[in-house]
Amino acid sequence: MIGSHEELGPANPIGAALDAGGSGITRRASGSRSIARMVEPHPLSGRALEDRRIIHPEQTDRAQVDAFREIRTRLLALGGEGNFVTMVAPISPMSGGSFVARNLAAAFAFDEAKTALLIDCNLRNPSQHAALGVDAASSGLIDYLEHPQLGIEKILHHTGIPRLRLIPNGRKREMSGEYFSSFGMRTLMDSLRTRYADRYIFLDGPAVKGSPDARILSELADFVVLVTGSGRDSPSLIRKHAADFDPRKLAGIVVNQLP
Ligand SMILES: Nc1ncnc2c1ncn2[C@@H]1O[C@H](COP(=O)(O)OP(=O)(O)OP(=O)(O)O)[C@@H](O)[C@H]1O
Ligand SMILES: [Mg+2]
User: Fold this and answer.
1) What is the mean pLDDT of each run of 10 residues along the chain (259 residues)?
2) Ligand nearest to the backbone CA of 211
3) Which residues place a Cβ less than 5 A from the ion ligand 2?
4) Is the CB of 257 under 6 A from ligand 1?
5) Phi first, then psi: what are they for 133, rounded to 5°?
6) CATH number of the domain that 73 lies in?
7) 250 φ, ψ (degrees, to nearest 5)
8) Which of 92, 99, 203 best tests ligand 1's pocket when mutated (most atoms within 8 Å of CB)?
9) What is the pTM of this model?
10) Which residue of 4, 23, 55, 171 has the fewest C-beta atoms within 10 A of its own C-beta?
């Protein structure tokens, strides 16, 4: 189960940051629509998705589906027309940041007029390839950044979820978040966002606590969604880390009920 930022109480500064978020998007995507090209060769059954803890439209646990739909609606309201890039990051490690990023991307893909692209940007602990059953051995984000001649199509993987693609992190190496401010990464993001106007991009980021990487990654996003494990981070710690981000980008804080 997840809850929204409002559980932190209406008087906290994060609520104020939410209102400012709407002005954050200046670049709009243009270009053709991608839907026709997004044929899913091996769609997963509802049962298989539930086993993987991925939401789907026919799911019987409506509370979880509705919670992700609500976050989607909030982001779409902030974003206005056109697509946008959202970074999702946990405040403390293992709080469910990747779980929220994956399911939020799936919620955007419910809509037949939209596509979603999830990019695993957790350099130290990439997890989306395993969660989505994608073989990321040599065709992920880092492989592309090191060898752009690989081509973007090679790193866009099907997930078994209609209209949702994954760019896994790729071959694991020791590297720092400075990679995210590289020219290659910015060029890749620009081409991913402008190629298809209906493509919503989700960056699965590393924990905010203890490393500047999530803040560096947020430079590439229009919106930031932080995730806190219920009862894990104190309100003052949440406020301190929320303040690390551009208030115009901070769309909210998800309170995740870890199993
Ligand atoms: N609400 C939830 N319901 C069910 N399982 C969950 C939930 N939240 C997290 N999990 C599971 O808990 C584990 C840790 O979650 P996840 O990998 O999303 O955390 P994270 O914050 O991304 O961690 P990291 O710091 O490694 O990036 C995963 O196995 C995930 O599937
Ligand atoms: Mg993660």
Assistant:
1) 39 29 35 58 92 94 94 96 96 97 97 96 94 87 93 95 96 77 95 93 97 95 97 96 97 93
2) 1
3) 97-98, 122
4) yes
5) 65, 40
6) 3.40.50.300
7) -70, 105
8) 99
9) 0.89
10) 23
According to the model, what pLDDT value does residue 251 have? 96
* 35: in domain: no
pLDDT, mean over the chain: 86
Quote the tokens at residue 27: 């670049």
Q: How far is the CA of 256 from the centre of ligand 1 (A)?
A: 9
Range of the domain at 202: 44-92+102-256
What is the side-by-side order of every strand in the sheet holding 85-90?
2-3, 250-256, 223-229, 85-90, 199-204, 115-120, 164-167, 157-158
Query: Can you read off the two tokens belonging to residue 101?
Result: 């990023």
- Does residue 28 lie within any of the structural domains? no
Query: Is residue 119 included in any domain, yes or no?
Result: yes
Q: What is the pLDDT of residue 135?
A: 87
Query: pLDDT at position 35, please?
Result: 53
pLDDT digits (tens, 9 = 90+) for 14-28: 222 232 233 333 333
List strand residue ranges (DSSP E) for the chain, in order. 2-3, 85-90, 115-120, 157-158, 164-167, 199-204, 223-229, 250-256
